[in-house]
Amino acid sequence: MARKCFYSFHYEPDNWRASQVRNIGVIEGNEPAKDNDWESVSRGGDAAIEKWIDSQMSGRSCVIVLIGAGTAGRKWITHEISKGWNDGKGVVGIRIHKLKDRNGNTANTGSNPFDHVTFKSSGNKLSSVVKVYDPPGYDSRDVYAHISDNLSKWVEEAVAIRAAN
User: For residue range 121-146, what is the model confidence (pLDDT) as tens digits?
Assistant: First the structure.
């Protein structure tokens, strides 16, 4: 049975790339908010956004952060990472900059978003524990194939890492 996972990504530049990963089908993922739904949620302010994130993460065992050029340091992505980890969920990062967007373009490599989250107890960065994968390949098809072949394994590994920490 496929694991249920929450996808975290920078919507505007990466939603096309993220949909490719979500559609692989080896895990069950959350559906992103439609533009109109997100506008409605965001009009409610931070409390409404946090409530929406809470409801979307409910029943999920892993947070998959799809890392594009501008993912790291974004307020709500950092919140989703922290919440996932603090709620005992596995957390894993996958670089998606080499997947093509709707216009056939790839992007630059982004910074590690787990460098923006620290453990209160030790001051260490979450990047010291959470893995980030940069799928190899010369073109978008190779990268997609690598993600498809390894996604479920990466999720299981993330869940195991969280259980050990």
Answer: 899 999 999 999 999 998 999 999 99
Q: How far is CA 41 from the centre of its chain?
A: 20
Centroid of chain to Cα 14:
11
What is the rounded distance in angstroms from the CA atom of residue 46 to the CA atom of residue 49?
5
Query: What type of residue sits at position 44?
Result: G
Q: What is the DSSP letter of 111?
A: P
List, for residues 44-102, the tens digit of each pLDDT value.
899 999 999 999 999 999 999 999 999 999 999 999 999 999 999 999 999 999 999 99
Q: What is the 3-state secondary structure (H, E, C) of 21-32?
A: HHCCCCCEECCC
Alpha helices by DSSP H, the chain: 11-22, 35-43, 45-57, 75-86, 140-164
User: At a CB cut-off of 8 Å and minimum separation 6, what does 66 contact?
Assistant: 7, 8, 9, 14, 17, 18, 21, 93, 94, 96
Query: Which option is the CATH number for 4-164: 3.40.50.450, 3.90.76.10, 3.80.10.10, 3.90.79.10?
Result: 3.40.50.450
